[in-house]
Amino acid sequence: MNYQEILDKLRECYPEVKTALSFQNPFELLIATILSAQSTDKQVNKVTQSLFEKYPDANAISLLSPEELEQEIKSIGLYKNKSKNIVTTSKMLVEKYNGIVPCTREELIALPGVGRKTANVVLSNAYNIPALAVDTHVFRVANRLGLTQSSNPLQTEEQLMVIIPEKDWSDAHHWLIWHGRIVCKARRPECQKCRLNHLCQYLNKSV
DNA sequence: AACTCGGGGCA
DNA sequence: TGCCCAGAGTT
Fold first, then answer.
1. Angle between helices A169-182 and A116-126 (to 10 degrees)
2. Taking residues A183-201, what's their average pLDDT?
3. Were A132 and a residue from A89, A154, A169, A197 both cysteine, which residue would form a disulfide, CB within 3.0 to 4.6 Å?
4. Does A207 map to a domain?
5. Domain check: are A12 and A47 in the same one?
6. What is the mean pLDDT of residues A99-119?
7. Residues A46 and A103 in one domain
8. How many domains is chain A partitioned into structurally?
9. Are residues A37 and A7 in the same domain?
10. Last residue of a domain, which of A126, A156, A185?
11. Last residue of a domain, one of A99, A126, A153
């Protein structure tokens, strides 16, 4: 399998690296990424605009009750868990890190609501620390294209980091997500429109 | 490994 | 009306 050919094709298909959650500072990116779990980026962007206007930092959100935060974010779904986690996370940021989002994977994952994928997003996008975030799209698309042969997201992450140059980890994350959302969808992938179908095994084999 | 959280967008 | 969404925590 020619990995480089697939990666070149992805870069060609998605030349400008699009980030659905384009947040400037680490705190906003962290909260937006926690909120994005199983929710669409449209839903998240709609909620975060007013949220960060009223409560711009960890200290402000740490003073809210989970019920108060629920009212701000209830339109995105899964809001009870997310409200509780975000308030607790904000309190931990204030108490342990002086309100600053930490920049190690271990410290990030220790925050409630933050798993490996969210931690990697913050590391790579907010702190420019090389990390390859694997979500459901990346996991599915990388397997279908034959970039990986993986049974869980951590395996996908490890295998992709071997194949892809470190400088491209963040870009590759976005290529694979965009491809997964637009073409290589979970249920009804549009293989006839896919510009990688000539070198993809998913069309001929059923994965 | 399976289950739960969930309102809103869209066909 | 039914299906699905930039995951994480619990059992």
1. 120
2. 91
3. A169
4. no
5. no
6. 98
7. yes
8. 2
9. no
10. A126
11. A126
Name the residue among A154, A182, A53 with its Cα closest to residue A196: A182
| CA R_g for chain A | 18
pLDDT for res A207? 44
Spatial CA neighbour of A71 closest among A56, A57, A87, A59 = A87
A66 and A114 belong to one structural domain: yes
Q: What are phi and psi of A24, to 5 degrees?
A: -75, -55
Asked if A55 and A70 touch (Cβ cutoff 8 Å), the reply is no
* Residues 6+ away with beta carbon under 8 Å from A158: none
Nucleotide with the nearest C1' to A77 CA = B6
Domain assignment present for A205: no
Which structural domain, as residue segments, surrounds residue A31? 26-126
CA–C1' A139–C9 (A): 20
Assess whether A21 (CB) lies less than 7 A from strand C: yes
Question: Is residue A28's beta carbon less than 7 angstroms from any atom in nucleic acid strand C?
Answer: no
Q: In terms of domains, do A138 and A122 share one?
A: no
- Which residue in A131, A136, A148, A123 sits closest to A186, CA to CA? A136
Instruction: Quote the distance between the C-alpha of residue A47 and its chain's center.
Output: 17
CB A87 within 8 A of CB A59: no
User: Residue A70: left (phi > 0), alpha (psi -120 to 50), or beta?
Assistant: alpha
Catalytic residue status for A168: no
Q: How many CB atoms lie within 10 A of CB A77?
A: 14
Annotated catalytic residue A117? yes
